[in-house]
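Data availability (excerpt). All sequences and predicted token strings are deposited with the supplementary files. A representative entry, CGNR zinc finger domain-containing protein, is shown inline so that the format can be inspected without opening the archive.
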Amino acid sequence: MHLNPYGEDVVNLAADLANRRPADAGELADRCRAAGLVLELPVTPKDLDRTRAALDAWEKVVDAADEDERAELLNRMLAAAAAYPRLTKHTGTDWHLHYRDDRQPLGSLLFTLIAVGTALHLAGRGMHRLRRCAVTECTMIFADTSRTGRQRYCSQRCANRDAVRRHRAQATR
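Structure token line:
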């Protein structure tokens, strides 16, 4: 099985943006550049609004009750972001596929990347590999990129916290 890193990178960016929403267009641009996106146009407040809408739709995908609902919600995002795939080579990269139109404003670009990247990630790794942390009081979203596909926690800290809680609960029995 070939795992598509394009999907993994994008779902990790989506999770990062959803878990800590950018406060303004400048922060959005900085975080996207840090994630490796090439920004062709200036980033505006409209891009921030479009990104927020994309993240709202994406969080519904994350929180879907089952695989069918998740697929339906993601298909809606894909339909709204429809563009034909194209081969491209830019900024010193090798040839690769883009699933978006050229020179899109960042908000539209992120909507498309998040929709397509999430679809690639889930189709390639499994529909269950996008979720919130299993620790009740933690609401962090993560993409499960583990080898086994059984990741339950957003971080080692949350995994340790839950293990301590389970251990203490056993000790009091």
